[in-house]
Amino acid sequence: MDQEYTFNFNFTKEDTKKHFPITFEVKEGAREIVIEGSYQPEHPGKEESWELAKEAVRIYLSQGDSPLDVDQLPRHILEKVMEEYIPVRNLINFRIFDPLGNFRGSGDNRISKGIPIKIGKDVSSFGCVSGEIYPGIWKLIVETHAVVNYCKLELKIEINDTERDDVPELAKPYRPVLRDYPVKRGWIKGDFHSHSVHSDGSLSIEDLVQNAIDRGLDFIFLTDHNKISGWETAREEKFSLLPGIEFTTFWGHFTSFGITEYIEWDKINPDRGIREVSGLVHSQGGLFCVAHPFTIGDPVCTGCRCIMDIDWNYVDALEVWAGTFSQRRHENTEALKLWRNLLNHGYRIAGIGSTDIHSLKDIYPDVPVTYVLVEELNLINLLDSIKKGRVYISRGPEVSFNINDVSIGDTIKVSEIPLKLRYSISRASDLRVISNGKEVSSITNTSSGEITLDITDPGYIYLEFWKRGELIALTNPIFIAQ
Predict the structure, then answer these.
(1) What are φ and ψ of residue 476, in 5° steps?
(2) Alpha carbon 90 to chain centroid distance?
(3) Is 296 helix (H, G, I), strand (E, B) or coil?
(4) How confident is the model over 294-324, as pLDDT tens digits?
(5) Domains (range + CATH), the chain
(6) Cβ(19)–Cβ(166) under 8 Å?
(7) In Å, how far from its chain's centre is CA 280?
(8) Strand order in the sheet with 103-106
């Protein structure tokens, strides 16, 4: 060991949602940096955890199409709900940059597990970037996502001129799942939100790709938390594994699709909004999306729920269906209401669905897949079609929808009356026709049909399909112009 640094922090509740930068010097000839962290206590006592989690659950259950009062729940049901969320934990992370300003890695959940991370010239931990260990001043930024009580953090940094091979969870060379992939056209389906071992997921990228293939998907976006380094290791993959990121901020989560260069997530905050980061995403040709805006929030899942104002002029897509519909109904139906309201105000924001997969346990029969219409499957075409709203979401059944032969995402004029709406779905469901935020027609247990619409106002029309109170599929709108 050539160099060693130790940094100690004593955090209180007032230090939540802050950044604490530190610097250290690396001398010439170094081949690796190993960072080991630990913090105590990990969580408060059971009683305090219960009260903190209960308030987060109260907010979560009070929304959607079937709001509940947490104080009216039978004790045994409340206890079952709370099992998922307690103990409430302190959440500390860090990210590290080399003297050139390049992102080189983050700690993620390895700190709480007592697992060190390694940034090596040849081999690094998951979520870290291998390469030259430049001499000079390196910067490490401690992130206090949640300090629910007193918390003491200790970081030890070792800088060595040889690379250790005894650090757990080192990334191995990527092994492509597919070395050839057929051309795909028309309505293709995929997942816009997935996590690997390069952030807090339990699956390797190879396992994520294989799972996507097993589910019949044509593409997935890899959206690890605050990094694109995982995708960079898998460039040889021929399956459509597409680059993305989940900006995991203190104030909300935001996914972006199609970016290939790292963007700092802390530029998103209540003072600066999303405009700057959205602009940086767009400058790379990518799209900016608000993810699961109404999921359970602080301090159970710090930053997961959006708690800052959003300028929707800088948003391309909204995650209106996240994960299993039945278990996340409160947030998904609330997101659906938000999307309708945005459409009512003239925003053309694509509604998408995602699994937010972290492990195979997240894949249920009622998780969504998102269908996108493309001339040929590639990143540019896919992003263009999402931007144009040529999208529908389904838990499986295929859907078609047009008005006077105008398809999803396109525009028809009111003057082209009568408006003949045609639809089909491969599994009989209860149809709801939504125009400008209101249900204007419904048909139970239908698989196809034609409806004549008497609509004279500009706006939009989209379809929802339900069965026994469960959402089966929904389309993006066809827009109505004067």
Answers:
(1) -80, 165
(2) 22
(3) coil
(4) 999 999 999 999 999 999 999 999 999 999 9
(5) 3-42+89-160 (2.60.120.380), 46-82 (no CATH), 173-395 (3.20.20.140), 397-482 (2.60.40.10)
(6) no
(7) 18
(8) 18-26, 136-146, 91-97, 103-106
pLDDT of residue 248: 98
> In 62-179, which ranges are continuous DSSP H helix?
75-82, 110-113
Q: Are 339 and 349 in contact (CB under 8 A)?
A: yes
Contact of 49 with 86, CB cutoff 8 Å: yes
Q: Please check whether residue 31 is in contact with residue 161, taking contact to mean a CB–CB distance below 8 angstroms.
A: yes
> Where is average pLDDT lowest: 35-39, 101-105, 470-474?
35-39
Find the angle CA(133)-CA(135)-CA(138) to the nearest 5 degrees: 80
Q: Can you tell me the distance from the alpha carbon of 419 to that of 439, in angstroms, rounded to the nearest whole number? A: 16
Amino acid 315 reads: V
CB 260 within 8 A of CB 227: no
Smallest CA-to-CA distance from 87 within 120, 119, 41 is with: 41
The residue among 327, 385, 331 whose CA lies nearest residue 190 is 385
Q: What is the DSSP string of 152-214?
A: EEEEEEEEESS--S--SSBPPPP--S-S------EEEEEES-B--TTTT-SS-HHHHHHHHHH
pTM: 0.96
Structure tokens at 431: 């149809």
Task: Give the pLDDT confidence of 354-367 residue by residue, as tens digits.
Answer: 999 999 999 999 99
Q: Which residues contact 133 (CB under 8 A, 6 or more apart)?
A: 26, 30, 31, 32, 33, 98, 119, 120, 121, 159
Average pLDDT on 62-90 reads: 94
